[in-house]
Amino acid sequence: GQNIDQPTEMTATEGAIVQINCTYQTSGFNGLFWYQQHAGEAPTFLSYNVLDGLEEKGRFSSFLSRSKGYSYLLLKELQMKDSASYLCAVMDSNYQLIWGAGTKLIIKP
Amino acid sequence: GAVVSQHPSWVICKSGTSVKIECRSLDFQATTMFWYRQFPKQSLMLMATSNEGSKATYEQGVEKDKFLINHASLTLSTLTVTSAHPEDSSFYICSAREMTSGDTYEQYFGPGTRLTVT
After folding, report:
1. Dist. CA A60–CA A56, nearest whole Å
2. Residues of B (93-112) whose Cβ lies below 8 Å from A
3. Chain A residue with minimal CA distance to B94?
4. Three-class DSSP category at A63
5. B44 to A44: CB separation less than 8 angstroms, yes or no
6. For B29-77, what is each residue's pLDDT tens digit?
């Protein structure tokens, strides 16, 4: 079966750095996405990785290792507005997105 | 970037009635649209995938006669919840896929529709 694992909840301090991990087992791989979702709102796109390595975009970076079935989202200089759920999703061989359950990130002052 | 709109943003209806939700891609053509449902504190659950001009493909456990999907044009898909019941109360989100020049297959999400059935 297909499976995406990520921690249910994480807590970090404003100004700090946090890394949210995601491991996956899917039938085929056509890229991994990270989305941010604030409560009561739809997800918004953060990053896309299809090749191994680190993609940096401002305060957010995403890493992928296809051989390990592993990705992480790194958030730097945390701000209170970063409190949200972070969803990891993998596009399988049928170009369908397989979603993780999401990681709720709580930022404390 | 690409924008997807959804209407209505929230709706309250009585049990037994039907509700139609519209999903539009505003500045791009979406050959594929997806309908998701999300219950509180849970992740997105894919309900169905619709391709313009053809029948929707429903996920296992989703009743096609209850959740009617029509993808009549490259910019519009509709989801109709028929004979709604309180257990259908949820956050319904659509997304539209545009193939980028880099073959990213990124999905753009609508703002969601919160349905409450009383």
Report:
1. 6
2. 93, 104-112
3. A42
4. strand
5. no
6. 888 899 999 988 788 899 999 988 788 999 999 999 999 999 888 899 9
